[in-house]
Write a structure and sequence with these properties.
2 copies of one chain form a homodimer. By secondary structure, chain A is α/β, with parallel strands linked by helices. Chain A has 12 helices and 5 strands.
């Protein structure tokens, strides 16, 4: 077993897509803020599971006692970038009772006749929960921009609506973590080939994947615009280098740990007389 | 690390509440069909995680390709019996993307003005999913019987409605596993005291817990009746001895593995020409 090597400082500062951020200059191979190797990162992921678990349980416990705190992790990425792996290996270490994963596919007919935030609103986490969006309302300013399904005026309306929506969630006590998993075009090619070479992964391959891949540069432009328009104080974007799956996982785990840590969680105090209850139980 | 000791035969036969089953004769301390000790059981739970994970992913993959197969695990028990631990340690080893946990609390005002199966129907798993009910429609024939909220005629109507409902789910391709975690009255007392002795567990304690505990014998009668009325061929009840948490967990894991195994799962075959797609990706 390799030694557990932690982040020296939280990677949140280096990963944040703040003013002046340029996606084209972000290196998908890099491991910002992390000095360890893959084996150390894998060990770190396992070592932090327990801490994440306790914080999530505290969040859940507080939620039962009137706290409005909750967490929303939004995952966006090109195909094969590893959203599924984040859900399985990072989110999956938490108790399913306190976690809600919401995947957003192409909208249904009913969803299409509503505003784009209608289906999103229905899936936001309740107090005490960790919600995870596997794709999100950002598709409405990404794929819609790439394919021209929304014009500039409509895109502007949506960016503003998103910012208002997220600000409202934050005011309600939601810690919002927006993650773009950043893989390179070459890495996507390698992963698509790996899927084709493994019959147990054929079900994950769609002949449509190549159609979207052809628009790679347009997607990168659309993401850049998203960061410029919607990386706000209360809901910043984090661009996580994702060519190395192990790094993306520990980075997202760390972002979750940091967000939970800032919520200042504690075990709810008993609202009953412990000694008296003890006596009642003994007699029962 | 202790050696992994498996079940010699699946415990499903011994645990099944078939004709003639008597709850009062079932021993909550026992470990039917299992020769190992606690340490072996803990090792078994970890060792089987991977197999459960692969089967669940196959189920999910088949669901994407038109299969109607799905799994529904129904958990019922007295307070502190360990439903939460089953969800966390057994269900929690599967990928959250393919698992839906539905907790059923006291019904809301809206739920109350519908038939008792209305809210249940909305929570049944979609094709490809593993659904988990933490409590269920059985509360409507358990707590309702214990407190006389439903009379005999209404209870009879509900048993019949449940059987029809579950038979329909089974016809739609749902493998139904109904588990009653069987703890003893003394064990519940010990666990309630343990909760009171640990401030990080106070949030799990309710002063109402003792109220239901006072009706222990009525609950056991109500469970016995549930087994007699609703342990059917397509949706049998399993009574899992639960005084030893480690045993309850490996038993439920084994029931899940057996149910998934019977679904005859396999990776969906590619509906595209793999070599042709490979060439397209290389060129892309």
């Amino acid at each position: 077993m390799a030694a557990v090597v932690g982040f020296k400082d939280s990677p949140s500062k280096e990963l944040k897509a703040g003013p002046g951020f340029s996606l084209s200059e972000a290196d998908p191979e890099s491991t910002p803020g992390y000095k360890g190797k893959k084996s150390n990162g894998v060990a770190l992921l396992a070592a932090q599971d327990g801490r994440l678990d306790v914080l999530q349980e505290m969040l859940f416990a507080e939620g039962k006692f009137g706290s409005s705190k909750r967490v929303l992790l939004i995952l966006q990425a090109m195909d094969t970038a590893g959203k599924g792996g984040i859900v399985k290996h990072v989110v999956g270490s938490m108790d399913p009772q306190g976690v809600k994963v919401a995947p957003f596919k192409a909208p249904t007919d009913e969803e299409k006749v509503h505003d784009f935030l209608w289906r999103i609103e229905k899936a936001v986490p309740a107090a005490g929960f960790v919600g995870v969006f596997d794709r999100s309302h950002y598709e409405d300013v990404l794929i819609h921009r790439v394919h021209g399904w929304a014009n500039e005026a409509e895109l502007e309306r949506r960016y503003a609506a998103i910012n208002e929506f997220e600000a409202r969630l934050a005011e309600q006590g939601t810690a919002i973590i927006k993650v773009m998993l950043n893989i390179s075009r070459d890495e996507q090619k390698a992963r698509l080939l790996a899927r084709l070479d493994d019959p147990s992964k054929h079900w994950k391959y769609s002949t449509d994947d190549l159609k979207e891949r052809a628009f790679w540069d347009s997607y990168m432009d659309a993401y850049q615009r998203v960061f410029e328009k919607t990386s706000t104080e209360v809901a910043p974007w984090y661009v996580v280098p994702a060519n190395r799956k192990w790094f993306a996982r520990i980075a997202v785990q760390e972002l979750l740990l940091e967000a939970l840590g800032k919520l200042d969680l504690s075990w709810p105090k008993a609202e009953f007389d412990v000694a008296a209850e003890r006596a009642r139980v003994v007699e029962s």
